[in-house]
């Protein structure tokens, strides 16, 4: 009977949808395990100055899945955002990255590097976020002046006054704040004036398009000019070719991140690269 009922129930589901639901549930369970079993890692992608010297890195989350191999965050972060698992993942990322900078701080070359850490809107919104960061900074011995938190415009879907207050609290810890994927989200230009930011990152979509598409070029140009006028730093992401680099330099951009300068790579490889080019 139970079997029959089961069959009847299943008939109401679209098998394709059912498969998708199962896949999500499985991924969710696996992700829970991943955190406890040490399957997560941070990769580091160089950020360079106008001369191509490494001035920092962005920490990017990777999952060494026991069967699937290396999984990129695009495949699990959106799910983790929905389920709330991003809070535990995000905490792990912060803890790991800050501890890493605390170690770099002891090294004559690596101590000078900035480290950018992605923070999801949901993480930022937690009541304890600022307190948690304060504790993690103390425990890790990280230098807050070398740490940048990368925030996204999805933050601005909530009360902006409150967002500004949290940002100010973070900056009073000595941290820098960067607005990631700028130009793709919800922010109006007016927010750039009000938010206590240090930097914006030009979204890689504009960089990818700017040599063929005049509109992308106009947007990239305008973001750089606007950032300068507002006294903000500006980093171009997704710089893949010399032509991209030249074009951005001509527009006044001085900080870059992209495959042209290095892909995200494991810690040891990044450290070696940074020391070799210092
Ligand atoms: P993002 O923060 O905008 O990071 C930049 C993404 O662009 C990274 O993808 C990086 O590998 C990729 N990228 C960099 N240079 C190039 C290039 O020249 N060409 C191309 N095609 N891609 C380039 P990744 O590592 O797959 O991360 C994707 C997104 O996942 C990130 O975008 C960020 O939104 C999210 N993410 C990654 N790690 C974390 C994390 O620790 N916490 C949170 N909340 N989100 C994270
Ligand atoms: Mg980022
Ligand atoms: Mg980005
Ligand atoms: Mg992105």
How many DSSP helices? 12
| Percent helix | 40-55%
Poorly predicted segments: none
Biggest sheet details: 10 strands, mixed
Secondary-structure element sequence? HHEEEHHEHHEHEHEHHEHEEH
Terminal residue distance: 72 Å
Q: Indicate the radius of gyration in whole angstroms.
A: 21 Å
Strand content: 15-25%
Mean pLDDT: 93
The count of strands amounts to 10
| Bound heterogens, unique | ligand C2E, magnesium ion
Query: Given the helix and strand composition, which structural class is it?
Result: alpha/beta
Shape: globular
Organism: Paenacidovorax caeni
Domain EAL: 24-278
Subcellular location: Cell membrane
Protein name: PAS domain S-box-containing protein/diguanylate cyclase (GGDEF) domain-containing protein
List keywords for this structure.
12 helices; binds ligand C2E; 10 strands; 10-stranded mixed sheet; 278 residues; binds magnesium ion; alpha/beta; single chain
Question: Can you describe this structure?
Answer:
Strands 1, 2, 3, 4, 5, 6, 7, 8, 9 and 10 form a 10-stranded mixed β-sheet that branches. The protein is globular. Strand 6, helix 8 and strand 7 form a beta-alpha-beta unit. It has 278 residues and is an alpha/beta fold. The chain starts with a helix and ends with a helix. The structure holds ligand C2E and magnesium ion (3 copies).
């Amino acid at each position: 009977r139970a079997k029959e009922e089961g069959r009847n129930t299943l008939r109401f589901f679209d098998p394709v949808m059912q498969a998708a639901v199962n896949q999500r549930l499985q991924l969710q369970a696996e992700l829970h395990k991943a955190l406890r079993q040490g399957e997560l890692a941070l990769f580091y992608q160089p950020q360079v100055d106008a001369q191509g010297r490494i001035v920092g890195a962005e920490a990017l989350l990777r999952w060494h899945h026991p069967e699937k191999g290396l999984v990129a965050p695009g495949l699990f972060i959106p799910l983790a955002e929905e389920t709330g698992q991003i809070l535990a993942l995000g905490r792990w990322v912060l803890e790991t990255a800050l501890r890493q900078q605390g170690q770099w701080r002891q090294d004559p070359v690596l101590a000078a590097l900035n480290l950018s850490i992605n923070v999801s809107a949901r993480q930022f919104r937690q009541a304890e976020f600022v307190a948690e960061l304060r504790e993690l900074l103390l425990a890790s011995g990280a230098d807050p002046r070398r740490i940048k938190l990368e925030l996204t415009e999805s933050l601005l879907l909530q009360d902006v006054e409150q967002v500004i207050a949290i940002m100010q609290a973070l900056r009073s810890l000595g941290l820098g704040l960067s607005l990631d994927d700028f130009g793709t989200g919800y922010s109006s230009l007016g927010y750039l004036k009000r938010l206590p930011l240090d930097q914006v990152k030009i979204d890689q979509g504009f960089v990818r398009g700017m040599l063929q598409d005049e509109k992308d070029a106009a947007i990239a140009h305008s973001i750089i000019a606007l950032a300068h006028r507002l006294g903000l730093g500006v980093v171009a992401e997704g710089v893949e070719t010399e032509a991209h680099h030249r074009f951005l330099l001509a527009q006044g951009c001085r900080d870059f991140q992209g495959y042209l300068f290095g892909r995200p790579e494991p810690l040891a490889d990044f450290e070696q690269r940074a020391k070799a080019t210092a």
